[in-house]
Amino acid sequence: MSLNLQTHTEHFTNPLYLESGRILEPYDIAYETYGTLNEDKSNVVVICHALTGSHHCAGIYEGENKPGWWDGLIGPGKTIDTDKFFVICTNVIGSCFGSTGPMSPKVPAHDPYRYKFPVITIKDMVKAQRILFDKLDIHRVHAIIGGSMGGMQALLFAIHYPNFAQKIISLAATHATQPWAIAFNKVAQEAILKDPDFKQGYYDPELIQEHGLSGMAIGRMAGHISFLSHESMGKKFGREYKKDDGLYELFGKFQVESYLEYNSYNFTKWFDPLSYLYITKAINIFDLSRGFDSLSEAMKKVQAELHLISFKNDMLFKNFEMKEISDVLDAIGNKHHSYIDIESDYGHDAFLVELDKFDTYIKDVLHG
């Protein structure tokens, strides 16, 4: 009964041909595995992370107290049971946790790419993972599961690698990023670009890790608002005022203001601003029907059992955006899919927080 957490980095020297027509070479992919691979390799579950997530989705690193971002779901005896399944989670290319991204050295020089890094798409992220799995000699998996940008990856696996996964579960995603979400990303991007400490992309990463980047913190506040909902903020903070601040002090704070400040300024010390720009770009241009005549043409490719989960009060990717995918699957006569809308007031972050509302459903899909 152990999690058997292992962290690896795989180095690739073959060029990765990107959707834009550009190439990335060489490149690294950081990934984590949990549990044990069985003999016929039939117990693999792939986890895909969201915008600021990483390959560390479960367990606790030595000397740290913060567990992986889906730790409540993954582990011995948990919903995604590592006594039964071999779980793999990779860090997407473009991110800043060990996979190649904008601050990686641009070979043969040692200087980072910065803006010379090519624009990558969610489809590129998925392609890189597929190449990694080939290298690990894993050619078919039991399931792929992801929420938000992870859910986008899961959907692209379903369309572009139709025979790779038996089951695919996508939570809190969309078939194409809508103007509402793009607008929130715009606030974050502008706030980063206009911060003088960003130095037009030529910042010193060590200084940012030490002091943070206030422009990025402001952008992240906008992000946080889109991840929550009117109701969840009301429940979480109400109109509570900071105990030691006077009501008539100009800079006295409500609890919600403290929360946004604390989380957002902290965030900028561990997440790279250029990665944030590149990944939000990838999210903005995400569209399942790109390269097809329509969404229904794209969905005709799907062979896996596809399970779609939305959350009633998701402000970022509205529940009807997931239902639209289900409706298209119904229209083309796909019998191997399901769609549920989870009763939740939490907002977009429900897929990270309200695990008890969908863990049984995921368990049933995995074991069904």
Topology record:
Blueprint: E1 6-12, E2 16-17, E3 23-24, E4 27-34, E5 44-48, E6 74-75, E7 80-81, E8 86-90, H1 122-135, E9 141-147, H2 149-160, E10 165-171, H3 179-193, H4 205-211, H5 214-227, H6 230-237, H7 255-267, H8 273-284, H9 295-299, E11 305-311, H10 319-331, E12 337-342, H11 350-353, H12 359-367
Parallel strand pairs: 5-8, 5-9, 6-7, 9-10, 10-11, 11-12
Antiparallel strand pairs: 1-4, 2-3, 4-8
Protein described:
The chain has 368 residues and is α/β, with parallel strands linked by helices. It has two domains: 6-177 and 287-367, Rossmann fold (3-Layer(aba) Sandwich); 181-281, Rna Polymerase Sigma Factor, Chain: A. The protein contains twelve helices and twelve strands. The chain has helices at 122-135, 149-160, 179-193, 205-211, 214-227, 230-237, 255-267, 273-284, 295-299, 319-331, 350-353, 359-367, and strands spanning 6-12, 16-17, 23-24, 27-34, 44-48, 74-75, 80-81, 86-90, 141-147, 165-171, 305-311, 337-342. It has an eight-stranded mixed beta sheet, with helices on both faces. Strands 2-3 form a two-stranded antiparallel sheet. Helix 3 (179-193) runs antiparallel to helix 5, helix 3 packs antiparallel against helix 8 (273-284) and helix 5 (214-227) packs across helix 7. The longest helix is centred in the middle third of the chain and has 15 residues, at 179-193. It starts with 5 loop residues before the first strand and ends with a helix. The model has no long low-confidence stretch (mean pLDDT 97).
